[in-house]
Amino acid sequence: MSSKKQAIFISSLIILWYSSNIGVLLLNKFLLSNYGFRFPIFLTMCHMAACAVLSYLSIVFLKIVPLQTIKSRSQFLKIATLSVVFCGSVVGGNISLRYLAVSFNQAVGATTPFFTALFAYLATLKREAWVTYAALVPVVAGVVIASGGEPSFHFFGFVMCISATAARAFKSVLQGILLSSEGEGSKYCGLVKV
């Protein structure tokens, strides 16, 4: 594949990624708030089923990445752990959309790097440079200010949104720890990283 075709392909994937994420978010908000659908966990199940089917089709028919098999019980447990944490973050995000505006939901989601730095420190006891922590202060301060002035603020929705954001960050840290052990990250990172 020429470098120009490869650049177009990668750009198309990025645009498709952002478009699908925005579309799913707005559709979930419409279903849960405007349409009155009351089952955010069922919506999450539909999300997970669609991801599984489309991932399988992309691997088997489009051959985007090679098909991988689970080789050990340890590998299965690592993938299952990541899946449960990821599913929890999606459930929390969907529940929060029932109570919060999409814009506020996304503003709270901007605190993901804060939670990532926190969980990375708690899990590995390795500190980042002070500049990294200093860069997180305005982000967190902005979310605190936005929370105080949000006209449609709902405490339960906010708690679920923070929980979903923390779960996303925890999944990233956990993924780095679990998949980097024994070189397993290079074997199946493409299957689990979402």
Determine Rg (CA atoms, Å): 18 Å
The total number of structural domains is 1
Dominant shape: globular
Query: How would a crystallographer describe the biggest sheet?
Result: none
Q: How much strand?
A: under 5%
- Separate helix tally: 8
Residue-averaged pLDDT: 86
Number of strands: 0
H and E order: HHHHHHHH
Helix coverage percent of residues? over 70%
Content-based structural category: mainly alpha
Which stretches are low in confidence, meaning pLDDT under 50 for 5 or more residues running?
A: 185-194
Kindly describe this structure.
The structure is a single chain. This protein is mainly alpha-helical and 194 residues long. It has one domain (3-192). Helix content is 80%, strand content 0%. It starts with a helix and ends with a helix.
Based on the model shown, name its key terms.
8 helices; mainly alpha; Sugar phosphate transporter domain-containing protein; membrane; disordered C terminus; 194 residues; 80% helix; transmembrane helix; single chain
Topology:
Layout lengths: L2 H32 L5 H21 L12 H27 L2 H8 L2 H13 L5 H20 L5 H26 L3 H9 L2
Question: How is this structure best summarized?
Answer:
This protein is mostly helical. It has helices spanning 3-34, 40-60, 73-99, 102-109, 112-124, 130-149, 155-180, 184-192. The protein is globular.
